[in-house]
Prior knowledge:
Elements: E1 2-7, H1 10-18, E2 27-30, E3 37-40, H2 42-46, H3 55-64, E4 68-70, H4 74-89, E5 95-99, E6 102-106, H5 112-130, E7 134-139, H6 142-155, E8 160-162, H7 166-174, H8 186-194, H9 200-204, H10 208-215, H11 217-226, E9 243-253, H12 256-276, E10 279-290, E11 301-312, H13 315-329, E12 336-344, E13 347-348, H14 363-379
Parallel strand pairs: 2-4, 7-8
Antiparallel strand pairs: 1-6, 1-7, 2-3, 5-6, 9-12, 10-11, 10-12, 10-13
The structure holds a DNA duplex.
Amino acid sequence: MFALIDCNSFYASCEQAFNPALRSRPVVVLSNNDGCVIARSKAAKALGVPMAAPYFQIKKLCERHNVAVCSSNYELYGDISRRVMSILADFSTESEVYSIDEMFLNFSGFDLLGVEAHALKIVQTVWQWAWIPVCVGIGPTKTLAKVANAAAKKQSKNGVFILQDQDTIKKHLAKTPIEDVWGIGRRTAEKLLQLGVKTAGDFTLLDARLVRQQFGVVYERTLRELQGVACLKLEDIEAKKNICSSRSFSRPVTELAEMEQAVTLYMTRAAEKLRAQDSYAQAVMTFIQTNRFKPLKPQHYAGKVVSLVSASQDTCVLIKAAIEGLRQGFKLGFQYQKAGVMLLDLIQNNERQFDLFTPAPDQKRETLMKTIDNLNNRFGRHTAFFGSAGLKHDWQMRCNHLSKRYTTQWDELPTCH
DNA sequence: TCTGGGGTCCTAGGACCC
DNA sequence: TCTGGGGTCCTAGGACCC
Length: 417
């Protein structure tokens, strides 16, 4: 058996956990640059605020109903996530962090009563220790645990839903729309609909060979998982194969000098992530684009890859390469709306190759990077930074409704009176 | 005025090897 | 009429996830 634990309206719940005044109000959290809605508390959903709606389209609705609007505060959400995950991991010998707000647990070896009691204990403990509401879905496969979790959110009173015996599973899948199944996206749902498959139950009646032939092996696995045959196991966290950092600007940017500052900042962040998983990049891509929502303005997209002579995790080397790529792609006369960098072809330390002509790794540089990371971890991001990032960033993304980083910054700790 | 930011896996097809 | 049988590596594009 597998359990999937999913935090309810995670970002909105994080905001409510630290700000009691928000608990009695509907809450929405906006994407970076205060662009779209990416999380809604239960009350905000009930008001009809749609997921992914651009904020400017629902601003009036929010004002009318006294909805609390929050900018994304990923430093807070990331830290709360780590706390929740560490609580959850203690409820099984085997776990998988699936996303910032979801964890799979191995739940084998319980009888039905034991399963339910254990799941209830999870809901209660996370609420008591982290002030985050969660739901638990349980099933014989990961895909069925996902289905069960959705049911826990929708129809259970205590936050737990168990899909165990064949009969219950069959009845429940017959009520589950096919597009709600994990792994079935919009495109595939449309194709399935043409075959007359409307529900997960219909899907389980299809022939596995036909599904493999027409849709591919991924969907055959989904089929078998729904039929109760576990094809997916819990996964370990592996090093990322690509690392990306990108942001939209708060206003159009036309000057190369400002773009260079942005690219420096983004690469600084990407390089931190790279070193945090102790990888090395062999190539760097820089991309820039104009505002695709303004088709009447001149449009330009450029993504330039620069290969490195030898794999590196040195921010200076990576920034240089990123700026080189930027200069290749940048054109005067366009209003750029977004820029980003990607670290590509990542390898681990023991996979690095050296040759006679490239300089040996520089111990001093490695120590310097470690020191910078330590400083920034301890005293807050951007304590030590690179000169090419510049000092004034009025193009930086909007975040007009930002809450405090209550758990990760000394000067933003909550105070009690 | 205003529209996010990350990732993964699989497949098909081309180019090449013996 | 008719032209083998086995591989690998790489890339682009599609589809999906949160």
